[in-house]
Amino acid sequence: MLVGIKDGIKLFGISVMAGCAVLICTMFVNFYLDILLIEELVTSDAARVFYQAQVSTARVVCLVSGGCLLITSAVMLCFYIKHYIDIHKKELGILKALGYARLRIAGHFWVFGVSIFTGAVLGFCGAFVLMPLFYELQNKDGILPEISLRFHPVILLWFVLLPTAVFSGLAVLYACFRLRKPALQLLRENLCGAGKAGGKAGEKDIPFLEELRRSTVGTKKTLAFFILFSAFCFSAMTQMSFGMKELASEMMGVMMLVIGLTLAFMTLFLAVSAVVGGNTKTIAMMQVFGYSGLECCRSLLDGYRPLAYVGFALGTLYQYGLLRVMVDVVFREVEGVSVYAFDFFAMLVSLAVFAVAYEAAMLFFGRRIGRISVKEIMLE
Questions:
Q1: Which of 293, 292, 282, 271 is nearest to 366 (CA)?
Q2: Whole-angstrom Cα distance, residue 164 to residue 158?
Q3: Largest CB tally within 10 Å, which of 119, 140, 148, 176?
Q4: How far is CA 324 from the centre of its chain?
């Protein structure tokens, strides 16, 4: 079974996530390996302190930022494979009924690892485009001897080849796990969700739209995580970019802002698209019964709004904690670094922009819901 062009476009989000992770890790690991080569040339006490701070910063950024992005890429990959299997369960059931082994079918899912390879290659190449300027800014005051940019083949292995192999293997294993159901069960329509949506016996009757809103969030926990993560990325990266000018450089601030906005909007788009795509039949039936597009939109998407603002709050706490660690621990002995204080202005600006952007995205998807054709759904 092959992944179609449409499915490849949806995997673009995973490529972006992997590319951002590899871009950050390649820049800082390459800098870390190059700066180790000049350790013997650092003689003065001030230069020694600054040198240790740069080494510590590279480690912290790689472990915290790069690590989190790679973990999120793995979660998103597993989610998309599950989503793909759920959509194509009838075709997969037919293949199993025809005698195809589960591992043979799952073996085709190695193609999902190509999205990781694409993102990793772009991130790796992008890092070497930015690194000359990055090296210059990291030592702009000339405290350290000149740091020469070198190519380290081991980084290509760590951040491009190994992730591709690991994620391709993960895609096959996870697909094999998801395909453990019998062929007959895959061929049937999944009616279990409707029973769960009704709630427990003895509960008070609640309006249909409210019940649909609750059940949509309750049965789509992975999507709820991605919407929360989207707001988290937006909050953390935009607020962190305000402080990067003083703590690092304007380049770092711009990089964090671009990466944060890219991850936030890409994750939000994929999550909400999956919510809408998975409920097209429900929306069509609601339209038949006279519900407006606005009512359909609210019943499906309003339940995620509180999670989005919780994610924003968590992102605010995360960026504050990370910057405090960098200032109080990593740069505590470096002269000229002021004590970091929480930036309320940056938080308010970020919150205002987030609120406008989030509501605009919901408006966009609301119009998309309103354009769903009942006829097209009935002909499927």
A1: 293
A2: 10
A3: 119
A4: 24
pTM of the model: 0.72
Q: For 126, phi and psi rounded to 5 degrees?
A: -60, -35
Nearest CA to 85 among 182, 7, 175? Answer: 175
What are the residues whose beta carbons fall under 8 Å from the beta carbon of 297, sequence distance 6 or more?
362, 365, 366, 369, 370
pLDDT in tens, 131-187: 998 888 888 778 888 888 999 999 899 888 988 888 888 888 888 888 887 877 777
Residue 219 backbone dihedrals phi, psi, to 5 degrees: -95, 0
Residues 210 and 117: their CA atoms lie apart, in Å, by 42
The whole-angstrom separation of Cα 373 and Cα 377 is 7
How many angstroms separate the Cα of 280 from the Cα of each of 201, 212, 258, 297, 332?
Answer: 27, 13, 33, 11, 55
| Cα–Cα distance measured from residue 33 to residue 55, given in angstroms and rounded to the nearest whole number | 9
Question: Per this entry, what is the length of the chain?
Answer: 380
